Amino acid sequence: MSMEHFPPLMFLGLIVIMLLGFPVAFSLATLGLGCGAFAVWMGWFQPAFMSNLPLNVFGILSNDLLLAIPFFTLMGAVLEKCGLAEDMLDSMGQLFGPIRGGLGYSVIIVGFILGAITGTVAGQVIAMAMISLPVMMRYGYNMRYATGVLAASGTITQLVPPSLVLVVLADQLGRSVGDMYKGAWGPSILQILIFLLYTFIVSRVRPEWVPGVAATERTLQGWALWRKCLRGIIPSAVLIFAVLGSMGGLPGIDTAVATPTEAGALGAFVLAAMHGRLTWPLVQGAMVGTMRLTAMVVFILIGSRVFSLVFQGVDGGIWIEHLLSGLPGGQTGFLIVVNIFVFFLAFFLDFFEIAFIILPMLAPVADKLGIDLVWFGVLLCVNMQTSFMHPPFGFALFYLRGISDTMFKNGSLPRKVETRDLYMGAIPWVLMQLLLVVIVIFVPETVTTFLDKKVDVDVEAATQMLQDVDTAEPGASEAAASDPTAALEAATAASAEEDPMAVFQDAAKDDAKK
To answer: Where is this region: Disordered (predicted)?
Structure first.
């Protein structure tokens, strides 16, 4: 066997072990070490090559950017358990309830707000289902619409900044987290508008699916209702802007002034304390959940690094590059094929596994094709949110299935939610998410509009201009020697008329306009 035939076999083995159901992190490490031993035995690289593995792993784990994983997870866990979702859903439900589809609107809007401050699909879907599903069933909402909107509004948390997915993608693509956040604002807002438009169309075409709630059913009216809504929205908005602004994740802000530690976890504790629910059991539960997720991510990262080191050692990167760069259609063809590939991978893998295993193979090819990696990362994030929704392995559907069964058993729901209603109800929302993928591919301005415009300065032209300004006219040195005072006055007048720094700045502006 020659080395050029080995990368396809490694890639095929990667797919096989993913389908086995054994923990991916350990499967990847085992496959990588086994293939590495075989490559050494075949003489494709020296045993010393594998000695790079410990340094490689420690180099990855010492990346300060990955601190965002435990601290953003802790932020989401604290806010998930402090009852913020319950307060916001109750107030929004009463505000929009009398409108046809009003409960659907409230679930979508609250999902967007909670997605920006919690970042946990499981907690968000469970919390919203516990509050909204009994109300929707009581007032005759179509079961497929109800389950679909609850699952979809929970998955939007993967796209709305400050999403943990975007942090991981920024790390793998070598781009700043702030740029990834800015680029994600357009698609996330557009996704919410598509969801709201679908609900509006359903309320007109099938009004019996989304009936309004009688105004007499509201327990709050007038200013008391608005005050409760604002009590949940304003502190949440302050936390969102504090986190994003501190990390340079808002349009117009390009400087990070705080670490993920300061920006995320501290704000969550303050918000929980404002609601009077900051207790030791809450903190303990949040820390345990954070520890589990962080440990899972670290092991996936180590396993993927073992595999990728050997894969690159046998020129797997070159094989991937040749395979994908020769696709018809150039950039568009590459993006379409990659998104189809990622969409089907998401049936079996979660976003961490896709980001750590697949993205390092795709990013160099995208960069060589001239694709903006921030746009590429946001596009993949839009795609990967479908991994929580599409049957049969959508985790959001599993969470909804579990909590609905529990609620039926304890009497909170009048009837059991059927599995077919969950799967059939998810299909329209998955199609809307795929529609957003298509929009982002063919309308890249949905991502790039919110990014800071880059100013390209022709350094060589500017340097030459400065040299021309500093170069004296012929005979100036003799005149200066004969009359120093006159030469000094002439130089002062010239510098007043044409300051070299002003010339440099004007040249930079002209180049930027061009």
So the answer is: 471-514
